[in-house]
Amino acid sequence: MADQTEAPAGSVSWGKSETDAVPKISFAHWFFHKMEDVFFQISAVDKEPTLVAKYAKNDVVLTLKGIMKEFDIDPTGADGLMLEQVGKGLKYVKGLRIGDPLPKEILTREASWSLSKRHQEIAYQRVSLQLVNWMSGGETMITDPDELLQLAEDPAIKKQISAAFGEAAEKLGYGRDEKEKVIQHVEELARELAYIEALRDRFRRVKMMDDKIQQLRRLYGREKSVLEIADQVARLGESAVKEFEQMFLEVDAQTGEILSVLRNLSTQIAYIRDRRDDLHIRLMAWDDILDRWQAAEMKISQQNPVLLRDTYKFLAPRFMAVKEWVLMSKLQDGGSLKAFSQVGGDKSKKIGGQMRW
């Protein structure tokens, strides 16, 4: 396994691809060459793919749809198709520039972010031990990454894994002496599951935020206005943690029957990549707010109530049911959170339907 450094969430980092020639962002139309410092991103306001650039020392922000209409760019031509690909690619990265490779998610279904060696080793060891459990009939599932890596160095465990590979080769119809074929399958599966392990690590920052919110609830126990906000944020944070945990549990359950997974590897890899992209897109949206929580000091300060309010604004559209919708104007004005809008019947749904993560 190659030793790679994990890239920042949302950035584009390229290792060896399934396809050698990854198309790069380029345009023939004169408009794109008159602009300086061209950067493509999703607008924070209307969530539309936009071009941000400088023209004659002025900042310019244009939607990709507006560019096509204004300059009569043929949607079926090279520039039109490239703009369409850029728009699709922005779902997976925070930004793109002219000359950047298009995100691999829209080309080969690979990930556009790289892995650390640690996550690859954790995934490989987890899959190998699943085979050992299958062979021995054991049900012990080791989830702690450090414990998994320690077991990788245990000679007795290595011997069991080798035996499990041979047993699996026999069961899969290759013959006991063809364990190399099983090893190849395990490596291929582990390569995909390593992304889930990396995302599991990123999710720990959400739990870190949740822990810090609980600390602030205790710190501000006597300040009613701040405590009201902290209570609401804590409840939403708990919902977020549960939702992410459920997503990881579903991936673990889907890939738990290891022999069945190895028999249907291409189907399982497609499933893992779908879940990988969903989790990555969701967690990428958290990066800014989690960075602020990472740096937050757990003490009475002017910054922490502001951070709680901003966190509420981030969490409410994603995790609050409509019938519990707290009036946003109250929050933004720093007022009480007692005013609720009771909307709809018994069935709860998220505010504004599904929003972009």
**Radius of gyration computed on alpha carbons:** 24 Å
User: Which residues sit in consecutive blocks of at least 5 with pLDDT less than 50?
Assistant: 1-19, 325-333, 336-356
- What best-fitting shape do the alpha-carbon axes yield? flat
Helix residue percentage: 55-70%
Number of strands: 5
Our measurement of the CA-to-CA distance between the termini, rounded to an integer number of angstroms, reads 32 Å
Largest sheet: 3 strands, antiparallel
Question: Which class of secondary structure composition applies to the elements?
Answer: mainly alpha
Which series of helices and strands comes N to C?
A: HEEEHHHHHHHHHHHEHE
**Cross-sheet strand order for the largest sheet:** 1-2-3
Question: How many helices?
Answer: 13
Strand content: 5-15%
> How much is the average pLDDT?
85
